[in-house]
């Protein structure tokens, strides 16, 4: 078994934020947006050596930056930008890259080339002594203290359903839908534009995300497209430039697309049906058990009314002889990170880390046999 003196660094690189910190801590000590900013008008910002802004500096100067999101739908699309973000993590936490192993979370169906590229950066550029790539679904379940259950994780870029039995994900039943928080924000923007508001800059889009988080909610039941819309309590949001945006039915219409994607013309099942399909794809003798152990994680599930609607819809559409039980995990925006911290305290952890020596000996082929 590889013994590492220092606790591993855990990095959960999500489409909206990167959560990072040392295993053993109760929460990630660093959460930074997963965007990289470049000055819109370089002469208006202080002169500096790099032309990119990341982390807290990017947040501070956000209104003057053009933003790029290098992680799209949970998958890295721009390696140079992501490397910049990961370097920032080490410097913000005052860690040297070769001092401790690293646990990296990965989305389901992460392509092998992405695993290879991740390993190349951590082993060859950062010189880490060991690395573990772990499924976000399995990690999230560990955070709940269980080893059997179905994890529904709905974040910024993806909605992932991972049925797990005694610590192993059931590969044929894992599902992922590329419809999540980002799409709700974009739908809210469309609804606001229809009411005459213009939202176009990267900063405006980040503000729309805040409006969604603070003012939107999930309708308790499916919205009938043929009946007049129920009136939401009016609300408003004041933009930093003083503009006041009034909000009415947009408050619940934005999130409805997650439950009834056909409203957008998308040929996708709603989130509740997605979960049912996934459980129905497991062995028949496991299903009852899984329906009674549904765990909900990810930032989008924090929206008011989300749990109630999801549970109601699943109860309506699942087989009649099953008892549906659902847990809204504590600290569910950090569930994946926390699960990695739990995993690192188990006796099997040392054996699952790929050491640098093994990487040098076996090369990339390790990642082709790696489980989901
Ligand atoms: N209170 C809230 N209400 C609604 N949405 C919220 C709330 N808080 C956070 N969110 C949304 O949750 C999403 C971020 O969740 P999370 O951190 O789980 O995603 P991520 O890990 O960055 O992305 P992914 O896992 O999809 O790659 C964003 O879309 C954000 O707007
Ligand atoms: Mg995530």
UniProtKB/TrEMBL annotation:
InterPro entries: Actin, ATPase_NBD. It comes from the Eukaryota. It catalyses: ATP + H2O = ADP + phosphate + H(+). Pfam families: Actin. Belongs to the actin family. This is Actin.
